[in-house]
Amino acid sequence: LSRRLTSAMSALTGSNIIDEKLLDAVLKEICSALLESDVNVKLVGNLRKSVKQKVNLKDLPAGVNKKRIVQKTVVDELIKLVDPKVEAYKPVKGKTNVIMFVGLQGSGKTTSCTKLALFYQKQGFKSCLVCADTFRAGAFDQLKQNATKARIPFYGSYTETDPVRISKEGVDKFKKEKFEIIIVDTSGRHRQEKELFAEMVQIQQAVKPHQTIMVLDASIGQAAESQSKAFKESSNFGAIIITKMDGHAKGGGAISAVAVTQTPIVFIGTGEHMHELERFSAQPFISKLLGMGDIQGLMEHVQSLNLDKNKGMIKNLEQGTFTVRDLRDQMGNILKLGPLGKVASMLPGMGQMFESMGGDDTSGRVKRLISIMDSMTEKELDSDGRVFNADPSRMTRVARGSGTSVREVEEVLSQHRMMLGMAKKMGGKNGMMAKMNAVG
Ligand code: GDP
Ligand code: MG
Q1: Where is each SRP54-type proteins GTP-binding domain found (predicted)?
Q2: pLDDT(334) > 90
Q3: pTM, whole model, 2 decimals?
């Protein structure tokens, strides 16, 4: 998806004259990419109509940046789709806040409820967990393990089979102990079975949650619509958590879930680990969907590493430049940061780059590319790469020095050129980043 959207958006950025025909072509491309990404057919149709309606090219006075207006309109409309304009429940300090999780089996409830308890605990809430999943063997053990690791008090039973009774007991006990966040994990079945919904409603009546959260696997695709609708009708949840956003999920299902239930997404799960939960924010989500890379997320991430080396790179990115040394530093960081795809997907253009480098088995490749750059001189590293074109013998020297081939050196340089192109497009006063910021 990203690739198609990127090309559609760059058709937009690359061209200076926007006319009706180009607008149609770009819209067509964006729409089919969204469809491919499992965004609901009706929603895509509406998006297309409203963009066309809003961008009335003929009526625009001369001198107005039409390109920018189309771009802004598309982004605005997409953001609207994930923003139902409804506030989710906000837990109150010094009070008991009961939160109940619902969702299909495997969607990520147990994992996410521990993540959320930990999230609130870090914010100073006294948090705990109640396991009301008596359906799945080992459910209590799983919650117990997670909770113990995160040092979060929990309640559950190996012998009690009535989830309603367990949840009531657990919530009552923790209420007495003045816990502020009590999260109730429920069981999910494979399909939307009647018993699941009946049980869910009974637990709801027993614990009277302040907030019910539906957990939805990002990879669910077109099924997101019917599924969210069924859960909304039975449990009337007030918030959504989308999990597994770190994977290859296309994210389009999330848009359908919001649209059909008019319920906000509050968090996204970005990995299996306890801290991999992020507050949902429409702008980066849409940027990512559009393949523009989450520059802001990247910068925060890089800054959080607190490495001196990165300061130069961030400054360069902001200014719309990118040196060979920046590429080298970035690859070094990627090795340090672990899960490649995750970091890579945050960098504009990097998702494609890593795909082209062979997907998962990238760390060996990255090391090889780094070793190539390690054989470059300081001057070469600090350049925009053009010194190599001026004097191709440099490539031969670097290839020999690093024990690689000229073809591989060329490959590094072409990766660098791609990044530089991205940086130019994204950074600077008139860059896409500045425009995106102006939008939001
Ligand atoms: P439940 O049946 O709804 O309670 O789902 P679980 O919490 O047991 O999760 C099912 C699987 O999804 C487990 O293997 C989790 O580790 C995994 N999982 C949950 N959330 C995420 C996420 O955000 N990213 C990834 N990669 N895996 C996740
Ligand atoms: Mg579970």
Answers
A1: 264-277
A2: no
A3: 0.67
Q: Is the CB of 196 under 6 A from ligand 1?
A: no
What residue owns the CA closest to ligand 1's atom 26?
271
* Complex ipTM > 0.85: yes
Question: Can you tell me which atom of ligand 1 is nearest the CA of 142?
Answer: 8
What is the rounded distance in angstroms from the CA atom of residue 130 to the CA atom of residue 330? 42
Distance 272 CA to ligand 1 centre (A): 6
Atom 19 of ligand 1, residue of closest alpha carbon: 108
Closest ligand by atom to 104 CA: 1
Output 207-210 pairs: Cβ under 8 A, ≥24 positions apart: 207/98, 207/100, 207/167, 207/168, 207/171, 208/98, 209/98, 209/99, 209/100, 209/184, 210/89, 210/91, 210/97, 210/98, 210/99
Domain with CATH 3.40.50.300 in the chain: 97-289
CA of residue 100 to ligand 1 center, whole Å: 17
Which residue did the predictor score with more confidence, 21 or 388?
388
Q: Is any ligand 1 atom within 6 A of the Cβ of residue 247?
A: yes
Question: Any idea what DSSP says for residue 92?
Answer: -
**Fold that domain 97-289 belongs to in CATH:** Rossmann fold (3.40.50)
3-state secondary structure of 112: helix
Q: Please give the CATH topology (third level) of the domain spanning 2-81.
A: Four Helix Bundle (Hemerythrin (Met), subunit A) (1.20.120)
Q: How far is 186 from 207, CA to CA, in rounded Å?
A: 12
How many whole angstroms from 179 Cα to the centroid of ligand 2? Answer: 22
271 lines ligand 1 (CB under 6 A): yes
* CATH 1.10.260.30 segments of the chain: 295-439
* Residue range 295-439 in CATH 1.10.3720.10: no
Hunting for tokens 């309603």 — which residue is that?
Answer: 164
Note whether 193 and 230 are within 8 A (CB): no
List every span in the chain annotated with CATH 1.20.120.140.
2-81
- pLDDT tens per residue across span 143-174: 999 999 999 999 999 999 999 999 999 999 99
Whether 333 is in the pocket of ligand 1, judged by its Cβ within 6 Å, is: no
